[in-house]
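Ticket #4471: structure export looks truncated?
Reporter: QA, pipeline team
Priority: medium

Steps to reproduce: submit the single chain below to the structure queue and open the exported record.
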Amino acid sequence: MARPLRDTDAGLFHVHAHSVRSDALFRDDLDRISFLRELARAGEKHGWTCMAYCLMTTHYHLVVEVRDGALPVGMHAVNARYAAGFNRRHRTRGHVLERRYESRRITSFADLLGVYAYVVLNPVKAGLCAHPRLWVWSSYWVTIAENPPRTFVDAGAVLRGLGATRERAVAVLRAFVEKS
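Actual output as written to the record:
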């Protein structure tokens, strides 16, 4: 049976991928940094806006806004380049990811908020930390920071829908995430 065609139109997407056989996709911080470097590179090259990410041990989640045709090309670049570097670094061969990435179009602002909360709460629900701001391998702490560092993550679409000022929007986002 042929694989279903991917949604390649411009828009917002929740994207995730899992490691082969539930092995560690990220064995250490160097792996995580390498993945984030590839994610930032793909965003720059393919015109993405990464609104959120969360790197777990065996999988990752992204919330991205893409142009027409950019999601499959960019995801191929991220996953292929990361897998090649992972295999080289750890002296392994073969597949690193279980299958192709999965993506779902985000259809409304309410959907975006729900997906955002789901993504950033992943480490809390997995028992890896007590609060999403404590998981450094998620973009949440950057988004809610008083003076956020410059990064490739731009949660502006989420924040713009929540308040007139950044401070107000962050407060509303924190309250929403913490009650989810």
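Status: closed, not a bug. The export was complete when the record was re-opened. Leaving a note from the reviewer for reference: The mean pLDDT is 94.
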